[in-house]
């Protein structure tokens, strides 16, 4: 599993998203929703290259088991955009079959803010 996840990050570092180590029936779930199928995922990236490519990744934590892994990292694109992410990876047919990605995508709603919380 560690080898697959390392390949995943290496392909993103190279901008080689067409050759990600993902299964044909790959699913990617994030705060934006779920993309089903390798071709649909590749097409989404192709149509939104400016939002997907050009990142550097700082890995903070990694945990690996035989068929799943979790990685916590910071993705940075340019000088101004950073995203803190935790992702779970699941193996299918010796490839990455599923990813469940957790990150914050916007401002906290006013009614959800905690009073007197120091950040």
Automatic annotation (TrEMBL):
Residues 5-96 form the SnoaL-like domain. This is Nuclear transport factor 2 family protein.
């Amino acid at each position: 599993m560690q080898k697959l996840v390392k390949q995943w990050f290496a392909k993103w570092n190279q901008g080689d998203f067409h050759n990600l180590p993902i299964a044909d029936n790959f699913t990617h779930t994030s705060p934006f929703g779920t993309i089903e199928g390798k071709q649909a995922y590749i097409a989404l990236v192709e149509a939104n290259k400016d939002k997907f490519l050009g990142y550097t990744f700082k890995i903070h934590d990694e945990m690996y088991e035989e068929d799943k892994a979790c990685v916590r990292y910071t993705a940075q694109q340019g000088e101004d955009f950073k995203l803190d992410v935790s992702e779970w990876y699941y193996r299918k047919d010796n490839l990455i079959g599923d990813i469940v990605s957790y990150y914050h995508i916007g401002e906290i709603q006013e009614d959800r803010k905690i009073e007197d919380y120091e950040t």
